[in-house]
Amino acid sequence: MKTYLIDDDELAIYLTEHLLRAEGFSNCICTFQSAQEALDKLVGRKQAIPQVVFLDLNMPLMDGWQFLDALTPYQEALRGTCHIYILTSSLALNDLEKSKQYDLVAGLIHKPLDSEEIRSIQSLYSDGEVGDDEPCDC
After folding, report:
1. Element spanning 10, H or E
2. CB atoms < 10 A from the CB of 86, how many?
3. Phi then psi dihedrals of residue 29, to 5 deg
4. How far apart are the first and last CA of the chain?
5. Cβ-contact 14, 65 below 8 angstroms
6. Of 123, 122, 125, 86, whose CA–CA distance to 106 is shortest?
7. Which long-range contacts (CB under 8 A, 24 or more apart) does 42-47 make?
8. What are phi and psi of 84, to 5 degrees?
9. Is the pTM for the entire model greater than 0.85?
């Protein structure tokens, strides 16, 4: 399944992408260190919509909340096909409450992402998985 990984931390991207690949989560993982870059790709519609997006909250220029706000005009087109999981190192309960205000947010995960969480998410969306022979259009 096509997956976006959005995080400004290079090490976090490396570790999360490595774990996703080791667990066989996706054969198409597109990584972005900028939420704006990911937003431009997502709403540009020149490529397939990612089925799962892992989104860091705390980033410079455009944070995760601003990314979600920017998706509001596209919400209807993305609902049911694009599932966003917020990745956060924060333990603030208000992040969980705020995440519930966004229809596209499927869950909030405390960093670091682990194998059990990956398998759980994978089991929810594996029916629509992209075949290994299809090109990845990051």
Report:
1. helix 10-22
2. 25
3. -115, 115
4. 12
5. no
6. 86
7. 42/4, 42/71, 42/74, 42/82, 43/71, 43/74, 47/137, 47/138
8. -100, 130
9. yes
Token pair of 16 as six digits: 């999360």
- In this predicted model, what pLDDT tens digit does every residue of 37-82 receive, in sequence order? 999 999 986 778 999 999 999 999 999 999 999 999 999 999 999 9
Where would I find the beta strands (DSSP E) of the chain? 2-6, 28-32, 52-56, 83-88, 105-110
- List, for residues 75-133, the tens digit of each pLDDT value: 999 999 999 999 988 877 888 899 999 999 999 999 889 999 999 999 998 764 444 45
What single-letter amino acid sits at 73? P
How far apart CA 32 and CA 39 sit, in angstroms, is: 10
